[in-house]
Specification:
Strands 1-2-4-3 form a four-stranded mixed β-sheet, with helices on both faces. 45% of the residues lie in helices and 17% in strands. By secondary structure, it is an alpha+beta fold.
Length: 137
Amino acid sequence: MAGERLDQRFRPRERLRRRRDFERVFARRCRVGTEHLVVYAAPNDLEWSRLGISVSRKVGNAVVRNRVRRKLREAYRTHKHEIPAGFDFVCVARPSLRVLKGDWGTWLSALFRRVARKCRRRNDRDRTSNGNAAERA
């Protein structure tokens, strides 16, 4: 029974920390936004997904920003079994996020699925257009 439980840890390998990792995700320009949050995604060639969080001072003071980060990490951690594997995600908080009530996990995992689907479609489209260009040459 204990072996069947889902791993809900947020391991160091699941975190984006380096500036170049964040820049790579932003450069991919695959994103989905709401009034509270913008989620960027990029494929990562790993068997798991990774999360980066950006909360600017516009969101609030240090206490508020840290609470937002904690809630985003917790939502990711508890719902990561619903999140597509093989992507790096960066969440950029908007000021209205600090007042969001309810289940952040369900909402966040739905955003992750949307942006991953969008990213896959873009990858497929890029592959087919590159294949057609190679055929013409």
